[in-house]
Amino acid sequence: MTGPDQASSAPAQDDPPRRRGWFSRLSESRNGLGFLFMLPAAAVLLFFLTYPLGLGVWLGFTDTRIGREGVFVGLENYAWLFDDPVFWLSVFNTMLYTVVASVAKFGLGLWLALILNRHLPFKNFFRAVILLPWVVPTVLSAMAFWWIFDSQFSIISWSLMQMGLIDQPINFLGDTWNARWSVIAANVWRGIPFVAISLLAGLQTIPQSLNEAAAIDGATPWQRFTKVTLPLLTPIIAVVMTFSVLFTFTDFQLIYVLTRGGPVNATHLMATLSFQRAIPGGQLGEGAAIAVAMIPFLLAAILFSFFGLQRRRWQQGQD
């Protein structure tokens, strides 16, 4: 027979586990905790990016002008742009500017990155010097190029005349094609440091043992570059080139300071034409329509980065 003392000493049954709330489960999850930390920044970005983008898209469907609210006109602005030769000239200029400048920046940037990745004396000093074109404000560097490309006092024309290669100064910014190549050269000069330093950081992550093993197997330097270095560098190249294309495609300051779209609209990009039609011209709806027309090209650049990252997943053994 069990006494009262023995009954009281028997272990009590455990209380049923209390159900945790969704916030507790979310905060204890690694992905959930990261989501909570990113939520304030995402809310700020959503507010400051979504509202201007939505307003720009809406203005593109109206005939709004400065000082006067517009009415909804549907696709009238886009139909008018479709028949506007200046708009299509700006599309051509933008594509030429973006493709040529991006390819040149990638080639020269990769070449500099490969050089700076070697064991060279004072390489840290040269890495710092290379960043100078990227650090200098765009307007300041554009003013310097405006002097370099001056039709009368250009240092390039003066040097070529002293060497006897030309008889008169070159009209860099007054001729249509000379102006196009001049602004492309200025953009390449500014963009090379970003590409070079980013690719150099990617080269630093590639194990040296892989190149050494390929060299032992008899691979030539070109084979080591194409079969080892370049495939491992492809994801970095995709991201870097995506940002390079975005920066180049939406360039405004350099063009506006150097040429303001001239001569005869020869250097007008879609960004500068949109600004000219919307602000000085007062046609906010038309300018917004030109800006919205840039979105498909920017989405194509983002998809380029996406497929580059898919290659990275394949390299890591994922599906």
TrEMBL record:
Residue span(s) of domain ABC transmembrane type-1: 91-307
CDD domains reported for this sequence: TM_PBP2 (cd06261)
One Pfam family hit: BPD_transp_1
Compositionally skewed regions (Polar residues) per UniProt: 1-11
GO terms for biological process, alphabetical: transmembrane transport
Annotated compartments: Cell membrane
Transmembrane region(s): 33-53, 95-116, 128-149, 188-207, 228-249, 288-309
Positions of region (Disordered): 1-20
Gene Ontology cellular component list: plasma membrane
Keywords for this protein: Cell membrane, Membrane, Transmembrane, Transmembrane helix, Transport
Record membrane topology: Multi-pass membrane protein
SUPFAM superfamilies xref list: MetI-like (SSF161098)
Sequence similarity: Belongs to the binding-protein-dependent transport system permease family.
Protein name as it appears in the record: ABC transporter permease
Organism: Paracoccus halophilus
